[in-house]
């Protein structure tokens, strides 16, 4: 059987206005995982349209397309093309699960939810000549997961080829997140066995890893056992976690001992009222300043995530957020415009209040305003978002952030990481067009490997104190950040 798997390019990734390096980071691990269920006699290929062109001159028997909201238009275009040629087309992913009836118009079979139970069931039905039009996941387990087909991944095309996922979902229930819709009907957070996760890590060459788990620290017992097993491997790794996990005694220390060097942290907002509105319970009454201090003291760089446009935000939120992040010495920041994805509680609330502006999925990219904001105009929100990126990544802001580090090496690492990520767009573009993104990995490893434990004396921590972060101890909005 000839099987073609495709990850269509996100709409924003095809625009000359957006950053090519962001879309050349990670290979399509989900498709490579599904490929592991195919037989030895099956001919299978994976095409990631972010880094390679889709060859539509071939004649596969089965086409499998993973669909995100801003790749839906392109995914349907490819699906329609291959169906017209007689191929059997399957669609799955976040957008398909959220809007199955829409997706079903462009597919022979659709998959709703995670694929570990429904993909093998489909393959059995397909080989028997009796595939169903829809498969919905109910059984949630990563037991006996076959080895990921990493041989199908073109490693040289990615800056971070060693991506890995050892869990599914997240234990939290934020209103703006797809998770609840995607995992509806079964467990919404579960992990591999520690032994299986360690075995997968052992398969990966080199030193660097990037855990793409929504929340690697979500099961503390699993995380501690994983980190203990990773000690001595000599790995350098990055991951995502919550402010609550960072503050948990002992957990961060074990992660650092196992090689953690950079963490994506969902701060999300400097306005405490927004946290309750969006059911971001894990952030309420947490001292953001203490989170930054703990990570800095352990040499862990921070990629802070912030969302603009929640109902308690006004036009001052952009400057206040940027100023707080720069003053805290956060190395990199990722900003988003609040986006009500179909299937989320946020979308339901916005639809019920008639605040949605349209259903052009190409614009549901966290860069465009697709709803009526409460505290500012749509134009103010979109302009403020772009200005936040401009202001945070000014050379002056990068150098101010670097100065918060007490050692020369810490200052240099901050400046190198922040500037390398955002200030050398033409160079990254040349590297990616030459299909040599993987050759930049040693540079990333070098920066991550610099000793960066910037321990500060208690009295000299940049004027920070417990409760001085964006959320005060009583959970009230901080006056001005």
Automatic annotation (TrEMBL):
Q: Name one GO molecular function term.
A: catalytic activity
Residue span, Radical SAM core domain:
156-374
* Coiled-coil stretches: none
- Keyword Isomerase tagged: no
What does UniProt give as GO cellular component? cytosol
Query: What region holds the B12-binding domain?
Result: 1-133
Keyword S-adenosyl-L-methionine, does the record have it? Answer: yes
Q: Where is this region: Disordered?
A: 461-481
Question: What does the UniProt keyword field contain?
Answer: Iron, Iron-sulfur, Metal-binding, Methyltransferase, S-adenosyl-L-methionine, Transferase
PANTHER family cross-referenced by the UniProt entry: ANAEROBIC MAGNESIUM-PROTOPORPHYRIN IX MONOMETHYL ESTER CYCLASE-RELATED, BLL1977 PROTEIN
Protein name, UniProt field: Radical SAM superfamily enzyme YgiQ (UPF0313 family)
Q: What is the lineage of its organism?
A: Bacteria, Bacillati, Actinomycetota, Actinomycetes, Pseudonocardiales
């Amino acid at each position: 059987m000839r099987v073609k798997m495709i990850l269509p390019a996100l709409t924003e990734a095809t625009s000359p206005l957006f950053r090519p390096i962001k879309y050349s980071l990670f290979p399509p691990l989900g498709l490579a995982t599904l490929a592991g269920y195919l037989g030895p006699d099956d001919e299978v290929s994976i095409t990631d349209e972010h880094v390679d062109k889709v060859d539509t001159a071939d004649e596969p028997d089965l086409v499998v397309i993973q669909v995100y909201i801003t790749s839906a238009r392109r995914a349907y275009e490819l699906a329609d093309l291959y169906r017209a040629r007689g191929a059997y087309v399957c669609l799955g992913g976040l957008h398909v699960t959220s809007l199955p009836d829409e997706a079903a118009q462009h597919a022979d079979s659709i998959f709703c939810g995670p694929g570990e139970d429904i993909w093998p069931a489909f393959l059995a039905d397909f080989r028997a000549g009796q595939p169903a039009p829809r498969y919905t996941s109910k059984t949630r387990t990563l037991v006996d997961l076959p080895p990921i087909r990493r041989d199908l991944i073109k490693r040289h095309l990615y800056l971070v080829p060693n991506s890995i996922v050892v869990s599914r979902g997240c234990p939290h229930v934020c209103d703006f997140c797809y998770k609840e819709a995607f995992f509806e009907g079964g467990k919404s957070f579960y992990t591999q066995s520690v032994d299986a996760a360690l075995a997968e890590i052992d398969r990966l060459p080199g030193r660097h890893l990037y855990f793409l788990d929504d929340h690697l620290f979500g099961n503390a017992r699993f995380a501690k056992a994983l980190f203990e097993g990773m000690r001595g491997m000599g790995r350098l790794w990055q991951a995502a976690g919550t402010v609550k996990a960072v503050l948990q005694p002992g957990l961060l220390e074990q992660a650092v001992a196992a090689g953690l060097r950079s963490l994506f942290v969902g701060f999300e907002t400097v306005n405490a009222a927004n946290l309750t509105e969006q059911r971001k319970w894990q952030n309420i009454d947490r001292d953001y300043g203490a989170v930054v201090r703990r990570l800095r003291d352990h040499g862990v760089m921070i990629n802070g995530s912030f969302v603009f446009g929640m109902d308690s935000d006004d036009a001052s939120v952009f400057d206040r957020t940027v100023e707080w992040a720069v003053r805290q010495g956060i190395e990199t920041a990722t900003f988003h415009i609040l986006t009500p994805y179909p299937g989320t509680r946020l979308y339901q609330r916005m639809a019920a209040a008639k605040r949605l502006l349209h259903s052009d999925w190409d614009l549901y990219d966290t860069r465009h305003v697709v709803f009526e904001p409460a505290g500012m105009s749509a134009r103010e929100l979109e302009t403020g978002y772009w200005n936040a990126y401009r202001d945070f990544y000014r050379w002056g802001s990068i150098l101010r952030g670097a100065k918060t580090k007490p050692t020369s090496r810490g200052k240099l690492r901050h400046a190198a990481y922040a500037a390398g990520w955002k200030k050398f767009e033409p160079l990254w573009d040349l590297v990616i067009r030459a299909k040599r993104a993987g050759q930049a990995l040693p540079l990333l490893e070098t920066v991550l490997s610099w000793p960066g434990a910037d321990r500060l004396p208690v009295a000299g921590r940049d004027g920070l104190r417990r409760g001085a972060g964006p959320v005060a101890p009583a959970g009230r909005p901080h006056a001005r950040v």
